[in-house]
Amino acid sequence: MKEIKIALLDMNNHKANQGMRNIKEISQVFKETAEDKVTIEVFDVRYKNEMPNVADFDIFISSGGPGNPHREGYEWEEKFANFLDEIWAYNKNQDQKKFLFLVCHSFQLASIHWNIGNICKRKSYSFGVMPIHKTDEGEQDFLLKNLPQPFYAVDSRAYQFIEPDDQKMEDLGMKILALEKVRPHIHLERAVMAIRFSDEIFGTQFHPEADSKGMLENLKDQTNRDAMIENFGMEKYLETIDRMDDPDKIILTQAQILPRFLQNAAQQILKYEMA
Questions:
Q1: What pLDDT is attached to residue 256?
Q2: What confidence tens digit (pLDDT) does each residue in 56-109 have?
Q3: Least CB-packed of 80, 84, 184, 269 within 10 Å?
Q4: CA distance 29 to 229
Q5: pLDDT value of position 219
Q6: Is 233 left (phi over 0), alpha (psi -120 to 50) or beta?
Q7: Pairing assessment for the beta strands 3-10 and 37-44 based on DSSP bridges
């Protein structure tokens, strides 16, 4: 029997957060429902400089986290860059593939590393349950196709991905799958919210792992609460809180994207093993 090995990369730098709890829970549910043996190991990338050995794992999920995604001279930054290169090179040269999901901060780090756009600071911090609009490619992608247009997800970021280098992305085989909401009263470029970096590597600027419990916990933080009220106004803020458990909003997103990523990765890994 094949053992599927999952590495979870904790990018939170020892800061209390809800995202890692969600990622662990989704991975644990996958482990408990999988027919094959699944192991899960967590690596504290930024605080302890821990990094999984690519050869030892099949599936990697790299979390969101605080701070500036641009290089600041830490040891872990070089290790993470090498990790991205190693997975990319492995998948180019091997029939058996490695699968990677990049969330928020990790998505920004990878986008900077591959130099495919402008990752810059937003004018104001974004926090809330936001509509995410699929591109034509996003409508076709198996991770997003079962979600409505637009779908809803938790957005929590001080930085954004704008001005994608279309030629560079095309050369690398990368596709933009989702953009942030349309803001007709604001003349700013819509940020990129999801990219298929390759058949095996997928990333989101939003938090597909988020649940209502974590969202409400995050709203105890004054910065998050103020950002959400600034984005939406008090009336919309209260309505969002009231609709947190709507089955067609973040509950649906959480049930679709990461679980489907894990299921597909496992199928591909096991298919190769049986070939």
A1: 97
A2: 999 999 999 999 999 999 999 999 999 999 999 999 999 999 999 999 999 999
A3: 184
A4: 34
A5: 81
A6: left
A7: parallel
| Two tokens, residue 9 | 């990369």
Total-model pTM = 0.94
Q: Are 266 and 36 in contact (CB under 8 A)?
A: yes
Confirm if 210 and 157 have CB atoms less than 8 A apart: no
CA 222-159-182 angle, to 5 degrees, is: 90
Is residue 50 within 8 Å of 243, Cβ to Cβ? no
Q: Which tokens in the block code for residue 116?
A: 């495919």
Structure tokens at 234: 């008090």
Distances in whole angstroms, Cα of residue 131 to Cα of each of 118, 128, 149, 262: 22, 10, 9, 24
End-to-end CA gap in the chain: 14
Tokens of 274: 């049986």
Q: How many whole angstroms separate alpha carbon 106 and alpha carbon 59? A: 15
- Token pair for residue 132? 């995410």
Q: What is the pLDDT of residues 174-227, one digit of tens each?
A: 999 999 987 766 667 899 999 999 999 999 999 999 998 888 888 888 888 888
Token digits of residue 232: 């939406």
Structure-block tokens of residue 271: 């298919």
Query: What is the C-alpha separation between 104 and 80, in angstroms, rounded?
Result: 15
